[in-house]
Amino acid sequence: MEATKLLNIIRLPHNVTKLSNMADQQTVLPIIFVLGPPGAGKSYLYKQAAKEIPRTKHVIMSDLLRAEKDKPESPWAQEILAKMPLGVHVSSQVSTSVLQAWYNSLPQDHTKTYLLDGFPRNIEQAEAFLAKMDAAKATISLNCPKDVLLERLQKRARADDDPDIAKNRYDSHIDETVPAVEYLEKNAVHVVDVSSE
C-alpha cells in the first residue's frame, strides 16, 4: 500500500492544491471521502494518517450507523438493525441523515479535516450529500484485486466478514460505489486513485 504517498496527499495545507482547485491554498478541507472494497486497508491506513497529520480525524460511516442503532429514540435504528448484519446498505435517506446529524454536531469552526471512511456507497448517496452539504472536497479511492481482499478478510474476525457476505460487499462496491466515485469526480470532487494491494 502506498502509505507514504497517501500521507503526503492528505497533509495540509502544503498539499491542498493536490486535492482541489480552490484558489485559497490555506483553506482547510472539511471532509475527504475514503472509499474502497472490504479489506482494502482503509481503517488501518487512515487511523495512522490521523495520528501523524495535525487536524485530521478518521471517521467510519459504519461506526456512525452502529452508534445510531443503539439510540432508543432514533427513527433510523430499525432499518440499520435489519440491514447491516447482512452486509446490505441502508437507504440513502438514512445514511445521509445520520451523516448530516453527525456533521451538524461538529464545532462550527471546522478546524479539523475529517477522513470519512465508507461513504458514499452509491450514486444516490453521493447526490444526496452534495445536495445537502457543501463539505466534500476530495475522494481517495483504494483499489485491490478481489482474491487479495478475500484472503485478508479470512484473517479478520468480524461478523460481516463471512465469505458469502464479503463477496456480496465486494460486488456491491464494484457495481455501486465505483460509479459513485465517477459521479463525484464529474461533480468537482477531486478523486485520487491508489492501489492498496
Which helices and strands occur, and which strands form pairs?
Elements: H1 3-10, H2 16-19, E1 31-35, H3 42-52, E2 56-60, H4 61-69, H5 77-83, H6 92-104, E3 113-117, H7 123-132, E4 136-143, H8 146-154, H9 163-186, E5 190-195
Parallel strand pairs: 1-3, 1-4, 2-3, 4-5
Helix pairs in contact: 4-5, 4-6, 6-7, 7-9, 8-9
Describe the model:
The protein is of the alpha/beta class. Helices cover 48% and strands 15% of the residues. The protein has 9 helices and 5 strands; from the N terminus they run H-H-E-H-E-H-H-H-E-H-E-H-H-E. The chain has helices at residues 3-10, 16-19, 42-52, 61-69, 77-83, 92-104, 123-132, 146-154, 163-186, and strands spanning 31-35, 56-60, 113-117, 136-143, 190-195. It has a 5-stranded parallel β-sheet with strand order 2-3-1-4-5, sandwiched between helices. Helix 7 packs across helix 9 (163-186). It is globular. It starts with a helix and ends with a strand. The model is unreliable at 12-29 (pLDDT under 50).
Query: Class by helix and strand content?
Result: alpha/beta
Alpha plus pi helix count:
9
Average the pLDDT over all residues and give the rounded result: 77
Q: Which regions contain 5 or more consecutive residues with pLDDT less than 50?
A: 12-29
**Radius of gyration (Å):** 16 Å
Anisotropy-based shape = globular
Largest sheet: 5 strands, parallel
Strand order, sheet with most strands: 2-3-1-4-5
Please report the total strand number as a whole number.
5
Question: What share of the residues lie within helices?
Answer: 40-55%
Distance between the termini: 6 Å
Strand content: 5-15%
The ordered string of helix (H) and strand (E) elements is HHEHEHHHEHEHHE
